[in-house]
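Pinned message: reference record for Histidine kinase inhibitor antagonist
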Amino acid sequence: MIEIIKTAPLNSVQDTGRPGLRGLGIARSGALDPLAATGANALLGNAADDAVLEFQMYPAALRFTRDTLVALTGADCRARLNGVPVPAWWVRDVRAGDELVLSPPIQGARCYVAVQGGVDVPAVLGSRSTALRYGFGGHRGRALQKGDSLPIGARRNSARLPAGYGASPPEQALAPRANEDADGVMTLRVMRAAEYGMFTPASQAAFTDAVWRVSAQSDRMGYRLSGPVLERTAVREMRSHPIVPGVVQVPPSGQPIIQLADGNSAGGYPKIGFVIDADLWRIAQSPPGTKLRFQMCGLDEARAAQAELESYLAGLRDTAAHCRVPIKG
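Predicted structure (tokens):
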């Protein structure tokens, strides 16, 4: 079991989500940073869709009631295991009674805690992810609370070395090699969306030329950005149409919204672009106040970025396999 000793609001159990149900009005949900969640499972030798714990508000503290292997990925939350620091993107053996404490991040926004065998909550509609908007999935369909006990899967291995093992975080391993440029601005690669042509030439230019700032009015549904007002050549009502994570909508305020994992399944705001799947993790690790700019890319570049991401995950899985040994007995 994992016992929740302390938690802030909105932390939850997540996995890769529920694709294919948007036609029923059900959002995908799942980890907001799918790369960190899948990467944690890769480091442990788990299935890619095993459930993990997503922490987006702090502080938090956990107690393990039996031995297991634990991975921490995503944000650097100054984690401490029994008072000993544990870096981000690291794997450690834990023993029954060990306590893990997470503090507000010094880098990034969301931390993921995975255990070998996954967090073993019941699957609902094919997923163990918590659908906070609908009140189902995860642990009792809600955010984690103090006193919760979460079942975990079977332990198969231990770390080869007592200090454990780790990996280079994606901001160092994937192009662009850092989340931010020399001016502290993060780059998100986007492609044009269906209503791009509805916006004025000046607004089309501003979309990629301007530096945008992540608003405090941002959550798992979507990230609101502040910057120049994007205007259409003519304002007219639109029918609601399907939308997916990564879509950049522009409401009447002219301030873009990036739809994310818990976003609506349909909406009537015009779409000026969409962030490629390979860069969605960068959004998830961007706290309010982060500065970003959009960079147009083509289909070939988007496919190459996805291939690089998948190669990174495969490398984690292959390398980590050499850092584990079967448990005795």
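Pinned by admin. Summary line: The chain has a mean pLDDT of 94.
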